[in-house]
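It would be a great kindness if you could assist me with a short task in structural biology. The matter concerns a single protein, recorded as an amino acid sequence and a row of backbone structure tokens. Could you please explain, in whatever detail you think fit, how the structure tokens follow from the sequence? Thank you for your consideration; the sequence and its tokens are set out here:
___
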Amino acid sequence: MTTAHVLEHVPDTDRALTGLWRVVKPCGNLLLSAPILSDANAPSAEPEDHGDNTLAFYHFGFDLTERLRGHGFTSSVLVTTDFKNLVAKSTSVFTETSSEFVAPSIFDGANVDDMVASQSSALLLGPKPAYMFVVSVYLKRS
């Protein structure tokens, strides 16, 4: 099962994760794609329109993996090799910010042990710019 850039558009993240747990069969797999836009999970102050007429209700950080584990999933974050190396060195190369994301602090909640580096897969699945490569979370229901 795949869900691509949907979770941030759902007003009740925990209810959605409970529903995903229900529909993914035992030992089943889920590829969940959600943008990591800040240092920690947080609801948007107001629903945001990102220019495509779909409201976004949530900003996710790397602590999304812990939240997913709290719903019973095994979770790994698919990133590029370069990104994983930067996190391992505690190096942030992002200086840009906008109303949608806070790039300089994205690394704050990152755990290199949660990351699976696959340059080709991450590049195939992830859009640009580079901070958006941190979008795919592989989940397995036990």
Notes: DSSP finds four helices and seven strands in the chain.
